Amino acid sequence: MTQRKKGNHMTLVQDKPTVATNSATIKQWLVATAKGDLDHAPYAEDAEISDPTGKYKGKQQILASLKVWKTAFPQINVEVTNQVAEGDQVVSEVTFRGTHTGPLATPMGPIAATNKPIDLKIAIVSSFRNGLIQREHTYFDQAGLMRQLGLAPTKP
In the predicted model, what is the mean pLDDT of the chain? Predict the structure, then answer.
């Protein structure tokens, strides 16, 4: 930030991308990801993300992890239901809805398509640097996802 003097008052001017720009970037990226458009991923080359399936370092690893989900759920809809942004951080509550029609690669081997619908609530905490996502943590109920896919017992 820089300070500019206007009359007798000092005004702080943000030189970096604005909070609104970061928020819009997340929304646009989630829509693009749901469509399978990974060409303009807003991740820094040295970005790091983590989610319940693991940790991924570097843009190429991150994109590979996203392709796993797109393969398993090729027709997914995404809705940002809430978003809070401050400084270089954006926290987004997101709902993904789709049907498991492709194999889902996991560390324990692939899960064949179940053809079951999912309604997955996710929280994503994104940290930006120079207009790109540098670090991201995604949280979701992995056991709940397995129940929706019919691969774990339903709650009593």
Answer: 89
d(CA 94, CA 98): 13
The domain spans of the chain are 17-148
- Pick from 101, 109, 104, 42: which is nearest to 74 by CA? 101
Residue 57 has pLDDT above 60, yes or no: yes
**Residue from 37, 20, 135 nearest 86 by CA:** 20
pTM score, two decimals? 0.84
The CATH number that domain 17-148 falls under is 3.10.450.50
Cβ proximity of 67 and 38 under 8 Å: yes
Q: Do 44 and 110 contact (CB within 8 A), yes or no?
A: no
Spatial separation of the C-alpha atoms in residues 60 and 48, rounded to whole Å: 11
Q: Which residue has the tokens 């991923």?
A: 41
Positive or negative: CA dihedral 63, 69, 74, 75: negative
